[in-house]
Specification:
Largest sheet: none
Helix content: over 70%
Protein name: Tropomyosin
Organism: Actinidia rufa
Distance between the termini: 108 Å
Structural class: mainly alpha
Number of strands: 0
Strand content: under 5%
Order of helices and strands: HH
Keywords: Coiled coil
Length: 152
């Protein structure tokens, strides 16, 4: 992160220096233009060509400065978008972990409920067996009573 800021700082320094140079060239061109307007009645072909070239360069420089500003804004926007995307990713990962933990808790609760259900089923079977045994004993005792009652 610091490296990116250092690179951005160095890049900004270079752009400031370039902008300063461009501003100085623009001032020189303005001075030359004023000099030509005030004092020159006639200039030779070479001087005119140099002045035209300087003027064209100044226009190009101005257009490039505007393009640099636009690109800097686009880079800043891209950096913000990337930071936002990283933040959203972290939130999504946290939500996924929370969902996984919830799933584990629900699964564990279901397993515990199943174990309890199995224990209750075993207990129910045991009670049914006990009832069946007692029912058989009652039937046997009734048969004995009927047999004994029939002899009297």
């Amino acid at each position: 992160m610091e490296e990116r800021e250092d690179e951005k700082g160095k890049g900004s320094e270079r752009w400031r220096a370039a902008t300063g140079n461009l501003s100085e060239m623009a001032a020189n061109l303005d001075s030359l233009q004023k000099l030509l307007v005030k004092k020159a009645v006639y200039i030779d072909q070479e001087t005119f060509a140099k002045a035209s070239l300087s003027s064209e360069q100044a226009r190009t420089i101005k257009a490039l400065e505007q393009r640099v500003d636009t690109l800097e804004r686009e880079v800043d926007s891209a950096i913000l978008a990337a930071a936002h995307a990283r933040s959203e990713k972290r939130h999504a990962e946290a939500a996924q972990k929370a969902a996984e933990l919830h799933t584990q808790e629900v699964t564990k609760e279901l397993e515990n409920t199943t174990k309890v259900f199995e224990l209750h089923m075993e207990e129910l079977h045991a009670k049914q067996e006990e009832i069946s045994k007692r029912d058989n004993e009652i039937k046997l005792l009734e048969a004995i009573i009927q047999t004994l009652g029939g002899k009297e």
